[in-house]
Write a structure and sequence with these properties.
single chain, 333 residues, alpha/beta, inorganic pyrophosphatase (n-terminal core), Diaminopimelate Epimerase, Chain A, domain 1, 2 domains, six-stranded parallel sheet, six-stranded mixed sheet, 12 helices, 12 strands
């Protein structure tokens, strides 16, 4: 993707930049936003990174993550930084006002905003944009931006490691349909920096605690249901499940992909119970558009093969809503 020359010109002078990503940040969100944070600092800009909610413990290995501020814990310091800020950058999500209390606060500030993302249907109001649904991960968008401004910065191992982790996180280690020839080209350039790609793979995927692994085992053996008529599988996870294993919602990251290893399963869904809603995560194979399913029935959206939604119902009703939605979808209703 060609970067708008106005963006490059904007960063020619030292700026005060605030970076954030989405609630419950995953590997792509953490890696891409951290890579951008390191890059802007390297370029001499005054940068701050803040997450709207706490990141999972298994992301603590990311270089520099200890410098990220958690909004609920550091509100006064963050708001002070935003006074006189030149730019707010939203990474790996496309609508500030949907991003919990931090997003709502940022959305109302009279500060220029920039979008770096790959999700469809972004909100209006961004002065700058590095956005394309062809990106398999936000990490690809950050890579393009850095390469356009100063490609030598990609030799920095902190930046390269964060970007590589971001890309393998959202691409399932290069196996999801969104991966392109460009994705492998980017990975090759990042490897040229000297990063330890095997160690990054282990950090991203082989990072389970015993508690989390036993929790996953419980989810698969005791909770997973197969809907053969729809070639679908779903896993409902309640607050009691989390309490039993001492786990939390972040421990479900990537669990939705697990049922997809079953040969005939083309659609996988996990339903996670929160205080006042049920969060849906959808995955699919081939060209089944789970983003359209999520948007039509669950007030959600996302990518063709990866989407999210929610229901205000209890778990029992939400499960029935899922079954009904698949039945109606199959009938074109």
């Amino acid at each position: 993707m060609t970067i708008d020359p106005k963006i490059i010109e904007f960063f020619n002078k030292r700026k005060k930049v605030f970076i954030t990503t989405h609630v419950r940040p995953d590997g792509d969100a953490v890696g891409s936003s951290l890579a951008l944070f390191h890059f802007l600092r390297l370029q001499g800009h005054y940068a701050m990174l803040s997450f709207p909610s706490m990141f999972p413990d298994f992301h603590k290995w990311f270089p520099g993550i200890e410098e990220a501020l958690i909004f609920p814990h550091k509100q006064s310091r963050i708001k002070q930084f935003l006074e006189g800020a030149d730019l707010i950058i939203a990474v790996d999500f496309n609508d500030l006002k949907r991003n919990a209390e931090l997003g709502k606060y940022l959305n109302e500030l009279n500060v220029a905003k920039m979008l770096i993302d790959h999700h469809p249907n972004p909100a209006n109001g961004f002065a700058f944009s590095v956005w394309n649904t062809a990106y398999c991960a936000a990490g690809e968008a950050v890579f393009d931006l850095i390469e356009a401004i100063d490609k030598n910065a990609l030799k920095d191992q902190k930046i390269a490691s964060c970007l590589y982790a971001a890309i393998i996180s959202d691409s399932g280690s290069f196996r999801f349909p969104a991966v392109t020839e460009k994705t492998f080209g980017i990975a090759s350039k990042l490897l040229a920096s000297g990063i330890d790609h095997s160690q990054i793979q282990r950090d991203v995927y082989d990072n389970f605690t015993e508690r989390r692994l036993r929790f996953w085992g419980h989810c698969v053996t005791e909770k997973m249901e197969i809907l053969e008529e729809f070639n679908a599988a779903f896993i409902p996870i309640t607050k009691e499940d989390f309490l039993k294993f001492g786990t939390k919602a972040s421990d479900t990251e990537n669990l939705v992909n697990f049922p997809m290893s079953i040969k005939h399963v083309n659609i996988s869904v996990i339903l996670v119970e929160h205080a006042d809603f049920i969060k849906f995560s959808f995955r699919s194979k081939d060209d089944f558009p789970v983003n359209e399913l999520a948007e039509k029935y669950f007030n959600g959206g996302g990518h063709v093969n990866a989407a999210g939604g929610e229901s205000k119902s209890n778990m029992e009703t939400a499960i029935q809503e899922l079954k009904d939605s698949l039945k109606m979808w199959s009938k074109g209703i």
